[in-house]
Amino acid sequence: MIKSLSIKNYALIDSLNIRFDKGFTVLTGETGAGKSIILGALSLILGARADAKTVKEGETKCVIEGEFDLSYYDLEDYFKENDLDYDNAHCIIRRELFSTGKSRAFINDSPVPLQQLKALMGNLIDIHSQHHNLLLGDTVFQLRVIDAIAGNNNLISDYKKQYKEYKKTETELKQMKEALDKSLEEADYLRFQFEQLEEANLTEGEQVQMEEEIRILSNAEDIKQSLYAILSILDNSDGGVISLLKDASGRASSLKKIFSRAEDIAERLDSDYIDLKDLVNEIEDAQDSIEFNPERMDIIRERLDLLYNLQQKHRVSSVDELIEIRETLRKKISSIDNSDENIAKQEKLLKDKEEKTLKVGKKLSAKRTEVSKRFASDLMKTIQPLGMPNARFEVELTEKKTFDENGLDNISYLFSANKKNSLMPVVDVASGGEISRLMLVIKSLIASNASLPTIIFDEVDTGVSGEIADKMGDIMKRMSGFMQVVTISHLPQVAAKGDNHFKVYKTDNEHGTSTHIVQLSPDERVDEVARMLSGAVLTEQAKENARVLIAQNKKH
């Protein structure tokens, strides 16, 4: 429930604070006093679109803040999922609107996107205005009414889960068929590409090895000459490095007895001598292995030309990438070859999902059918005293050709205000006043059967008076036994039934016009109801009538 509403610098409002309580709260005031302005401000913290023009002239921003008690709602998971602080007794919702057109939204001082704010506030407040009466012709709204009265929350959740899985499987099947059609069109080309790569008998790393080998073959003579020259330097009996090193090692060994450091020198010279002898052997092996071979060069060049052409064709730069493309083609061709089997499996899975969805959908339809008759009966009993003694109402449920996210049912609210007229869809035959009363009754029936948020009625009683107004007031009063109800009304019969009564008024001064609100004391309330009964001139008789009207409602 809403505990308080604070408005600053919004339209004609400088600063306004309202403390709400449980039960039935009434807001009254002269036409144009600013009741709709208060609702407009409230709608901002419900996530309504912001308009910079509503910032009070001369101010840079307006702030609307509401405090809510969440004890009656199971919303802790919502706060955890969105990483928000949770206090079920004190939830602060704030919206700031700047004259530049920018706006910010906050939940418990944490900035949040507007959609996140809307998602939360949709659970807390329902503003019912003349515009909302248009919902009566909306089949989705009609189904939601039946589901709310039937307590179908768990069934709907189960159905939507099954339906979501069904649609996901259906989409996957469609994508598989589209992919198959596309693949079949290019299957021959894919096979040609694959066979070309398969015949190439590609091996990882072969390109690097062959490029190295052809470099050697192309320069075989130069390499052999250079290696021969190196050998001559290292191993020449007439003064080669190895011969000189051996001699140096012998001289170092002869000094061991007279020069202690000569032992280390001799060891290192011996080690270098051994290393160079090994190196000479390796160079000789390398020299022997190198041989100019034109036939081998032709073979390698032909192989490299094939690899380079394949790389150019597939726009890659290595054999490893060609191998990856080959394996991808292999999988695609395998998928095409096995597509009939895969599609058959997916179709079987889709059929299974469809059966599960229909099973839950039929349970949902059965509950809707069962509740619809009781709902129609209760609605007629409630609406007939509201100036429609001959009203008839039925809920027509038929099976859809194709089920959707809302179930298996087509729905239509059929209505007639007269005995002899045939039942027709409600939006086709009901007048504006009749639709307004129907919506009030529907909301009252939902309230007594399901947990609803705070509801605010914006002049739902427009166009009625006398006994009908009194009966409409009774309905709203009964609703307040199940939920917090706030109504904006011009009717004394309704105002007299409130547990709390606020008056909206405006004042003029040299700075302009301002809207204010005040909670009325018992005496002030008598005066306000009397004004609503008699007009601008308050008479003692009007006051007495007001006292009687208020006293009568206290007894109920």
What labels describe this entry?
6-stranded antiparallel beta sheet; 18 helices; 15 strands; 55% helix
Fold and architecture overview:
With 556 residues, this protein is an alpha/beta fold. Helix content is 55%, strand content 18%. A hairpin with a 2-residue loop joins strand 1 and strand 2. The radius of gyration is 45 Å and the shape is elongated. The model has no long low-confidence stretch (mean pLDDT 88).
What is the fold's blueprint, element by element?
Elements: E1 2-10, E2 13-19, E3 24-28, H1 35-45, E4 61-68, H2 76-81, E5 91-98, E6 103-107, E7 110-112, H3 114-121, E8 125-128, H4 139-150, H5 153-199, H6 206-218, H7 220-234, H8 241-254, H9 262-289, H10 294-314, H11 319-337, H12 339-383, E9 392-404, E10 407-416, E11 424-425, H13 426-429, H14 432-447, E12 454-458, H15 466-479, E13 485-488, H16 492-495, E14 500-509, E15 512-519, H17 522-534, H18 540-555
Parallel strand pairs: 3-13, 3-14, 8-12, 12-13
Antiparallel strand pairs: 1-2, 1-4, 4-5, 5-6, 6-7, 9-10, 10-11, 14-15
Helix pairs in contact: 4-12, 5-11, 5-12, 6-10, 7-9, 8-9, 10-11, 12-14, 14-15, 17-18
